[in-house]
Amino acid sequence: MTSATGRPKSRRFPAPLHVAGGTLRFPPLRLLVLLLPLLFQTSTLLAQASDDDSEYQSPWRLSYFPFISAGDNDGPLISIRARYWQPAEYEARQTYTAAVDGALGFTARGGRYAVVQFQGPQRWAGWRVQGGALAERLVRFGYFGLGNDTEKDSDLLTDANPFLYRVRRIRYRGEAEATRRIHGPLQVALQGALEQVRFTTLPGPSLFQQDFGEGIEETDATARVALVYDTRDNEYNTRRGLLLEAGALAGSGNDGYSRIYSILRGYYPVREGTIVAARLAASGTGGTPTLNARYTLPGWERGLTVLGGEWSQRAFDTGRFAGDGLLFGNLEVRHDLLPLGDLGAITLLGFIDAGRVFEGESFRLTTDDLHVGGGGGVAVRVLRSTIFVFNFAGGGDEFNFTMSTSWMF
Question: What is the C-alpha to C-alpha distance for residues 381 and 98, in angstroms, rounded to an integer?
């Protein structure tokens, strides 16, 4: 159901879902326990099939390890990850042919997640498949209103009123995707997904409460088709090439909606150890997209949370701007200060991020009213694919620090 403005109408939750004081029943461990055996059984069958092949393939391996990353507006995220995987040939574009991953994580403020997924980028010639399930609870997700001209007044944030621009988001998502190579670097990808999202208020007044009441619940089934043109030299630490993607999505949320989007990426080595990387993304929707759809840009390798945060605009909080249309770009220079070959590297980076959203107006290509920020950072690469990136940005509302466990793009 939607209001006259096209926004989802507020709905009160049944008591078991919404509990006063900020607590919410959430069973990520139970979900992980139920799904892991199925995915590990699938990977075991794949490993047995590999043993029957006439050509030699690397044996499957099991690894497990803890790691620390950044939660969305929520401080350090402590995780434990188990990975059952088959290494790829050394010169391959990926470091593995197939893998099953499971992870659990939490923050000190009550955020937590559980995820299981299967990825097979090289398991079958001409195909790549992936799928999985996610359950997460974000307790400091950003809500500043809808539209490109929303403002943040830090003077309104006090110890008695800390959640003016925050909302709790609980999300359950399952998805499956298959990609078929058409010719050379040109591929077509099909994805189906089912998602349930609940936004609920935190203690005290907030902009979300003014617009939606105590909370909203959204169920959204989506189907997406995308054309992908990929000439990157590798996918884990790209130094040269293009990744061009254009797609269309149909969603069932609210009264139904559609989306057309494009994400264009390029990488160029200007000298040994120095890479210039650029990305341009655009998206427009029709119908009545859900609130969560306004925060999400679909993508072939991964969907992005927009606009704001380490995946889209590093000078702003995660969820800083939201709308039914989107336009943003990123320019980044990466220089290996201490290159160690396959052992890793310490990399310095400088970047500029710019973008805007559209709400209640048609999408258009424009440079008007862009929100611009920039800064620098340090990346630490361990071996060939493990990367930790620390970003320091300004030019937005205030100084912003973000951290990620891979390159932004």
Answer: 22
